[in-house]
Amino acid sequence: MIRVALDAMGGDHAPQAEVEGAIAALALLPGVVVQLVGQVEVVEAELAKHPGVDRGRLEVVPATEVIGMGEKPLAAVRKKPKSSIVVGLGLQKAGGSDAFVSAGNTGAILAASTVLLGIHPGVERATVATPFPTADLPVLVLDGGANVDCSPKELLGFARLGSVFARDILRRERPLVGLLNIGEEDEKGNAVSRQAHELLKQATGINYIGNIEGRDILAGHSKLGHVDVVVTDGFVGNILLKFYESVARLILRLVKRTAPDILDRADVQEVFRVLDYAEYGGAPLLGVRGVSIICHGSSGSAAIKNAIRVAAQMVETGLNQHIAAEFAAGAPVA
Amino acid sequence: MIRVALDAMGGDHAPQAEVEGAIAALALLPGVVVQLVGQVEVVEAELAKHPGVDRGRLEVVPATEVIGMGEKPLAAVRKKPKSSIVVGLGLQKAGGSDAFVSAGNTGAILAASTVLLGIHPGVERATVATPFPTADLPVLVLDGGANVDCSPKELLGFARLGSVFARDILRRERPLVGLLNIGEEDEKGNAVSRQAHELLKQATGINYIGNIEGRDILAGHSKLGHVDVVVTDGFVGNILLKFYESVARLILRLVKRTAPDILDRADVQEVFRVLDYAEYGGAPLLGVRGVSIICHGSSGSAAIKNAIRVAAQMVETGLNQHIAAEFAAGAPVA
């Protein structure tokens, strides 16, 4: 059995979205146990709304404290050892769980994951990998906001971590990596991107296609070919991610104003579903010695369910062993 | 009469889009003369397709050379003094024209504009201002790619230049400025954005609302209020601009696949029109002593027409005098 600890107190719709997401995940994934981490009375009250649910694969793990969305991450993690985030990740550290999923305070999940799980030897910084939906396969953009300023070497590390995830979870046999830049030529970009481009060109073990541009992400390819993994620093990645999240809302506003009747159509709703992050199951933190998935604060039950599914897949495929092997092999630069 | 020089040789659809755009602009703007700059035989051959056109406000200015899209900007500007870009801007410098519009090599337009027109005293760097369409009024994002690495002081300069443009051309009485960042709090972002935030907070003469996030651009507001002008460096701005340009293509692909019949509807086409940059008339280069508008290489006649309209408006409203006054008043920091 794969044990996934789920922060029952995190997110804007907790504990309802979490409990419903957990129940949906269990129906989908027979080999998974969900550990609901949170205030027992709150979680049990929510569970009581689902009287028919099989408790055999649904555990409740007590955590009396809650880290709020607005709290300073590192201080909150230190001050609240009994919070659902710290308890859930502590359980994984102690060997009592295989993965952690939370829609709570992103900074606190990042800090607690790094501190409690630690980082694989050879990894410089853990990175948030965010799948961007496209018309075909999702494209993985990293870093999504964990690392604001990045050295060229750290960007190379993100390329390697993203490549392992793309192989194991996104099922890309030979993931192609692009560096996000403002043009394709070698000399384009700022100092860091120019150096990173040279480093990535020389790197072995990854399939680097070259500099790509903003328009190539949603297209899923640049002039140089297909793209699976897009590398950038967390400043650009986070701005782009939030910008993309707002696109569906813009389209919805425009359609509501000019052609509201089409919103009732199932085929039109399908277009919005592609733009919706919910289907893509949260953003995994890669590079830590364990499994930690960060969900959007506004996650509903479908997003939680998918995050549990991805967490279980990360355990099942041995993603961490693959990352450990990739980085234990030493520097990949020729 | 306002004289707008139009590069007849620039862009993917030149000279057809340029000639058609010029003719459309003249019908719309009775006080404008368009100067078509390019190879006379090429331009005249295109004009011959419009036998009824009134040549009274349509001049042809000879320029025997053409700068290609792939040429190195600065070298091309130096090597080709008879190119349409250099001749068109040279005409403005010599007093024979009031504004320049081109869909040609962006880097070459930037270089030639800066060299030939010069920069207003007090302006550190000229900036490309890109209007982002939203559900309501467009939001002006700058820098759009002219300045890859920016100091906090340069970002402040962009805020001031953008504010003047928003007042004069976008008709915002009191333009509100946001700094693009990864969170609203003072301590968020990289070193440059933290310093820029402090500088903008202290600045007088602009209306700074604070740090904004990627999602706030298309919304047209952050938690802190409405946003008219978004300041960021040219690396982030260019990536974001190109990403946004690709959104309409993604939506079109998705709709074509799932609900192709709605594409025939005029009300649905209206949604795509909002997402289409063509309506917004190119990106003005602000800070130079003159008027220079950079159009997308793929501009059609509607985009060219709108760029001529904006160029004429920039002359008419006295944008340059307002920028000169704003920057002559000295450093705006309290």
Largest sheet of chain A: 7 strands, mixed
Rough outline of chain A: globular
Mean pLDDT of chain A: 94
The pair of chains with the biggest contact is: A-B, 50 and 50 residues
Strand content of chain A: 15-25%
Number of domains of chain A: 2
Q: Which value, in Å, is the CA radius of gyration of chain A?
A: 20 Å
CATH fold-level name of the largest domain in chain A: Isopropylmalate Dehydrogenase
CATH class wording of the largest domain in chain A = Alpha Beta
Oligomer: homodimer
Spatial strand order of the main sheet of chain A: 3-2-1-4-14-13-5
- Note the gap between the termini of chain A: 41 Å
Overall CATH architecture of the largest domain in chain A: 3-Layer(aba) Sandwich
Fourth CATH level, the homologous superfamily of the largest domain in chain A: Isopropylmalate Dehydrogenase
Uncertain residue ranges of chain A:
none
Q: What is the share of helical residues of chain A?
A: 40-55%
Helix-and-strand structural type of chain A: alpha/beta
Structure in a nutshell:
The structure is a homodimer of 334-residue chains. With 334 residues, chain A is of the alpha/beta class.
Report on this model:
The structure is a homodimer of 334-residue chains. With 334 residues, the first copy, chain A, is of the alpha/beta class. The first copy, chain A, has 2 domains: 158 residues, Isopropylmalate Dehydrogenase (3-Layer(aba) Sandwich); 152 residues, Isopropylmalate Dehydrogenase (3-Layer(aba) Sandwich), CATH 3.40.718. Chain A is 43% helix and 17% strand. Chain A is built from 12 helices and 14 strands. Chains A and B meet through helix 8, helix 9 and helix 10 of A and helix 8, helix 9 and helix 10 of B.
